[in-house]
Amino acid sequence: MTMSKKRQQRFEEVRPLIRRILVRHWDPLDVSDTPEASDEYHAYEFRIFERLESDDSVADIARYLRQIERSAMGGPPVDPNADADAAHAAAVELCRIDI
């Protein structure tokens, strides 16, 4: 499926913000202190953008982030409560983005 030019442009505008939120608030791989790893979550940015376009709730986005942690990043977290809090905090910030 090709993306409309307007949609692509909007994604490119908000992509740095999505990336910054993921690194600052979620960061399950702990890359925030490694500038060259700032694109570590690149693979998830567009799907998050789509979820924001669809008006997914904070809970839905937090659940998606937790799903990524479990399925794409190798299993259960060391501290499930802290990771759940981080996913929720990131989801709150992501939902503030005006898509």
Oligomer: single chain
- Number of β-strand runs: 0
Helix % is 55-70%
Shape: globular
Structural class: mainly alpha
Count helical runs: 4
Question: Using only CA atoms, what is the Rg?
Answer: 13 Å
Poorly predicted sequence stretches spanning 5 or more consecutive residues: none
Strand content: under 5%
Instruction: Summarize model confidence as the mean pLDDT.
Output: 89
Q: Kindly report how far apart the N and C termini lie.
A: 20 Å
Order of helices and strands: HHHH
What is the gist of this entry?
Helix content is 65%, strand content 0%.
Description:
The protein is mostly helical and 99 residues long. It has a domain at 62-99. The protein contains 4 helices and no strands. It has helices at 5-26, 42-53, 58-71, 80-95. Helix 1 runs antiparallel to helix 4 (80-95). The longest helix has 22 residues, at 5-26.
